[in-house]
């Protein structure tokens, strides 16, 4: 179990960073996800995919955290993501700002749309897997993706079209 | 022409190859007849690519062993590393590498990185992760020390490394495996391991000149670029 979690960890980390909007909160979420997965490893069905199970745990923990934060009235500073300092050379800065732009676009999505979009577009999961991971009908996966892409199009404009 | 929300739903499924075959054909015809729908298809496709590409390196980055331990996922010591103890660096490196040995400040400990999805051989792992002039010990006890990083004309990244009296040039394929492109005895004057036997090899570095020529290798990259390659999974 531990070895399989370690193998899935890089992708879990990416999912967590995409959901939370930054590396630090993403790693916190990854850590909480692994803790819970290890504590509840008896609940994992070996017939199913471990990565999907981890994504589901992460998504549930993330939604819980977002609800707690909202109740406290805090808000996430989206705009700070775009202020990326960089004196380490051009390539690094370009890479960072691409990630910052991508993060910024994702943060404009409602949580449920973001989860669907990240699982399909970033993690490459199929609609059926996503439906199972998130416990929603396939039709909902499709319509959330359409809403997510439409919103991302509004945020990014046509800047990505070469 | 405009695009209806219902068409947007099907466009999303079309982009992900999730439309059933009959519907996909019908949608292809709608797409051909509707420039606004085509423009939206292009825009969504490009945005998808931008975001997927931006996040790709995140899943390639090493996970700190301390973090693994904190999560109760003890890292196995697959690759141990320490700074090369000697300051007698090969002349080829001195000639090519403009950043100087100071860049490899003392105290660099190579992170033990786990969790890559595809298992690759220990040498490939070490070449993936070890900065030039640091050294890595493979599980079989062999010590290797990368000395420089170049790019082959076909786009592959290649590294020269030393090991027990020999030098070699290896290039990385898309699956993360480093394959040897040239090998020879280390030039005289280079540190030898206890079992290494120095052999006459003409001018320093000449053993690999054929391989460098055949690959159409670029000049070596500087330390910053190499660090980005190591951090970014050699993309």
From TrEMBL, chain A:
PANTHER family: RNA POLYMERASE ECF-TYPE SIGMA FACTO (PTHR43133), RNA POLYMERASE SIGMA FACTOR RFAY-RELATED (PTHR43133:SF25). InterPro entries: PhyR_sigma2, RNA_pol_sigma-70-like, RNA_pol_sigma-70_dom, RNA_pol_sigma70_r4_t2, RNA_pol_sigma_r2, RNA_pol_sigma_r3/r4-like, WH-like_DNA-bd_sf. Keywords: Sigma factor, Transcription, Transcription regulation. The keyword Transcription regulation applies. Residues 5-57 form the PhyR sigma2 domain. Transmembrane segments: none annotated. Gene3D superfamilies: 1.10.1740.10, Winged helix-like DNA-binding domain superfamily/Winged helix DNA-binding domain. Residues 103-151 form the RNA polymerase sigma factor 70 region 4 type domain. Belongs to the sigma-70 factor family. ECF subfamily. This is RNA polymerase sigma factor. Pfam families: PhyR_sigma2, Sigma70_r4_2.
From TrEMBL, chain B:
Residues 181-202 are annotated as: Disordered. This is Anti-sigma factor.
């Amino acid at each position: 179990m531990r070895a399989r979690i370690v193998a899935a960890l890089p992708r879990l980390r990416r999912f967590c960073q995409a959901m939370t909007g930054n590396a630090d909160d993403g790693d916190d979420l990854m850590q909480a996800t692994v803790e819970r997965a290890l504590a509840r490893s008896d609940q994992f069905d070996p017939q199913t995919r471990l990565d999907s199970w981890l994504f589901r745990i992460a998504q549930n923990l993330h939604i819980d955290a977002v609800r707690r934060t909202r109740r406290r009235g805090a808000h996430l500073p989206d705009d700070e993501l775009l202020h990326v300092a960089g004196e380490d050379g051009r390539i690094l800065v370009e890479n960072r700002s691409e990630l910052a732009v991508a993060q910024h676009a994702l943060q404009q999505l409602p949580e449920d749309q973001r989860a669907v979009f990240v699982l399909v577009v970033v993690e490459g999961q199929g609609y059926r897997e996503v439906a199972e991971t998130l416990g929603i009908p396939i039709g909902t996966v499709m319509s959330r993706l359409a809403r997510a892409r439409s919103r991302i199009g509004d945020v990014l404009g046509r800047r990505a079209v070469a | 022409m405009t695009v209806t929300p219902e068409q947007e739903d099907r466009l999303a499924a079309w982009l992900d190859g999730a439309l059933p075959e009959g519907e996909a054909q019908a949608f292809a015809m709608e797409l051909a007849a509707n420039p606004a729908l085509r423009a939206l298809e292009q825009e969504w496709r490009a945005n998808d690519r931008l975001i997927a590409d931006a996040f790709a390196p995140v899943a390639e980055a090493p996970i700190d062993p301390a973090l693994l331990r904190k999560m109760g996922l003890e890292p196995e010591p697959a690759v141990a590393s320490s700074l090369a103890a000697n300051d007698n660096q090969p002349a080829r490196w001195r000639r090519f590498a403009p950043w100087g040995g100071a860049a490899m400040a003392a105290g660099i400990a190579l992170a033990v990185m786990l969790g890559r999805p595809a298992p690759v051989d220990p040498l490939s792992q070490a070449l993936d992760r070890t900065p030039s002039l640091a050294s890595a010990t493979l599980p079989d006890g062999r010590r290797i020390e990368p000395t420089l990083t170049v790019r082959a004309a076909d786009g592959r990244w290649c590294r020269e490394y030393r090991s027990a009296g020999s030098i070699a040039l290896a290039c990385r394929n898309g699956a993360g495996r480093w394959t040897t492109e040239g090998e020879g005895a280390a030039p005289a004057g280079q540190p030898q391991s206890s079992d290494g036997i120095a052999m006459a090899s003409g001018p320093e570095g000449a053993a690999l000149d054929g391989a460098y020529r055949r690959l159409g290798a670029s000049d070596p990259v500087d330390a910053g670029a190499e660090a980005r390659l190591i951090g970014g999974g050699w993309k």
